[in-house]
Specification:
This protein has 353 residues and is α+β, with helices and mostly antiparallel strands. It has twelve helices and ten strands. The strands form three sheets. Strands 1-4-5-8 form a four-stranded mixed sheet, covered by helices on one side. It has a four-stranded antiparallel sheet with strand order 2-3-7-6, with no helix packed on it. Strand 2 (114-119) and strand 3 (122-133) form a beta hairpin. Helix 1 packs antiparallel against helix 3 (35-43), helix 7 runs antiparallel to helix 8 and helix 8 (241-269) runs antiparallel to helix 9 (274-299). The radius of gyration is 21 Å and the shape is globular. The two termini are 19 Å apart. The model has no long low-confidence stretch (mean pLDDT 93).
Length: 353
């Protein structure tokens, strides 16, 4: 991480710390929108970190901008910062003005369920989309839709859909939307070159890698702290060899996920490279599964109690590992890439990546 990334991480860390207390996280699980948190993120310009200057952003290096998503994971922040950054990236690439407020995306796997047709001087978007992140709180969505043989981006206002609320395991909103929106032609444009459903899926996978890496850092710190404080048989449980071994495994998984995430961030900055993002998502998902299990073994039953904070992070790890493709999907993608390249290219491609 360069100096800019470190400064951004420190800034957002201080901001999130006061808004991501256990009480606030429990409120979010009950469906209360974190209005003050979002207002501060937006006032600081953090929601536009991935945008170029021409689109109202700061023109940051993408790797530096993506450190914000890792910070969201580190604090289990109940806000759609990653989704807003993704929507902004999609809209800016198509030359559409990016609005203020929380945004979401109508992701690659839902393109086939949407229909975009000309309607005079406007466009008519219809269809249904399942499990949209933060759909009920978004002021608009960036949709990627195939229309007349061309991939188009549409900025869809929240007034253009109805919501059936849903949630992932972490009780983050994952809502089903039914769309029937008439959209002004200035909010519909051809997608940027190379931007298709697969590219958006890769960006989402990289975002979840970043969030998981941040959450794993916190899970590791919490587990070490608890093992040093919890006394059993007259000494801290961290003094027992079995606990020490498990903590070492947990630390190794957290470090591996962090390294994979660094690769994913670089892959986003250099054109959403498939091999790097596939490997990173698969490895981060594996780390999430192993580390979350060990953390709860170390904490015992208290880790599941509402009064303790561990479950806020492990529930997100279990949720995020499956969103935008799980380990099986991305490992299969890697296998297909290797098979298509041929045996002679396997090692050179690994070295190049």
């Amino acid at each position: 991480m360069d100096e800019t990334g470190e400064l951004l991480a420190a800034t957002v860390g201080r901001l999130l710390e006061s808004h991501c207390t256990p009480a606030k996280l429990l409120e979010a699980e009950r469906g209360i929108w974190a209005k003050s948190l979002w207002a501060e993120l937006e006032a600081a310009g953090l929601t536009r970190a991935l945008l170029p200057e021409a689109a109202g952003g700061a023109g940051l290096d993408p790797v530096a901008a993506l450190t914000l998503v890792r910070a969201v994971g580190r604090h289990a922040a109940p806000a759609p910062l990653a989704e807003t950054m993704m929507a902004g990236w999609l809209l800016a690439g198509a030359g559409i003005d990016v609005p203020d407020g929380p945004l979401t995306i109508l992701a690659s796997r839902t393109i086939g369920s949407l229909t975009l047709q000309p309607a005079g001087r406007a466009w008519h978007l219809t269809g249904s989309v399942r499990r949209v992140p933060w759909g009920r709180h978004a002021v608009a969505a960036a949709a990627l839709v195939e229309s007349a043989g061309e991939t188009r981006v549409a900025l869809v206002p929240a007034s253009g859909w109805t919501v059936v609320p849903g949630a992932n395991l972490a009780l983050e909103p994952r809502d089903d939307l039914t769309l029937d929106a008439v959209i002004d032609s200035k909010f519909v444009a051809p997608a940027a070159a190379g931007t298709d459903g697969a590219a958006l899926h890769r960006l989402g996978a990289a975002m979840r890698c970043l969030a998981m890496a941040g959450a794993l850092e916190t899970v590791l710190a919490m587990s070490i702290d608890y093992a040093q404080q919890r006394v059993q048989f007259g000494r801290p449980i961290g003094k027992f060899q079995a606990i020490q071994q498990n903590l070492a495994i947990l630390a190794g998984q957290a470090v591996a996920a962090g390294a994979a995430t660094d690769i994913a961030a670089d892959a986003v900055a250099s054109g959403l490279k498939l091999a790097e993002i596939a490997a990173a998502k698969a490895r981060a998902g594996e780390a999430a599964s192993i580390a979350a299990g060990i953390a709860h073994q170390v904490h015992g039953a208290i880790g599941f109690a509402q009064e303790h904070s561990l479950h806020f992070f492990t529930k997100r790890l279990w949720s995020w590992r499956d969103e935008f493709g799980n380990e099986a999907e991305w490992t299969l993608a890697l296998g297909r890439l290797a098979a298509a390249s041929g045996a002679d290219r396997l090692w050179p491609d690994i070295i190049a990546a």
